[in-house]
Amino acid sequence: MKTNKRIGERIKEIRESKSISVSEMVERSGLEETQVLAIEKTGGIPSLAPLIKIARVLGVRLGTFLDDYDESGPVISRKGQHEKGVSFSTKNTTSHKHMDYYSLSSTKSGRHMEPFIIQIEPVVRGVDFVLSTHEGEEFIYCLEGFVEIKYGNETYWLEEGDSIYYDSIVAHHVHAGGEQGAKILAVVYTPM
User: Structural domain tally of the chain?
Assistant: First the structure.
């Protein structure tokens, strides 16, 4: 199982192997220095957006941080055997984690899409959601519960069986729309 801390270590390892300083990473990614250092040290990642920005600066695909494998053939993910890859919080590295990502393709090398089963915790009252933007596209299919997607100036609701496909460059946030939490299938595409 890939922990967030291991992801942070992998980012630092790749950055250093490419002789990219933290200040260069900050300048090229648009992230704050404290955030880059926190990600590398603890793996505290608030959303996919910073991870995607870091991948772009390092010239690697998003999956590079999530896998250690070199499988070029098909990858099968069996029911109930999803590998937990990463967790994200709602606002910053100190807020509660509200999404657990279970990779459906962590052993597939060279992939351009990242399919996940995502368990979304119920909304905590008083938590402000920060919209994120990054290059690419996302497809979300609601498996259980209700999901609220803030997308630009609009809000969309999904219930079991509903789906949405959108451009990730538009500011967005995905969270549970009810008190029970939700479960979704998400496929994230990020160009290299």
Answer: 2
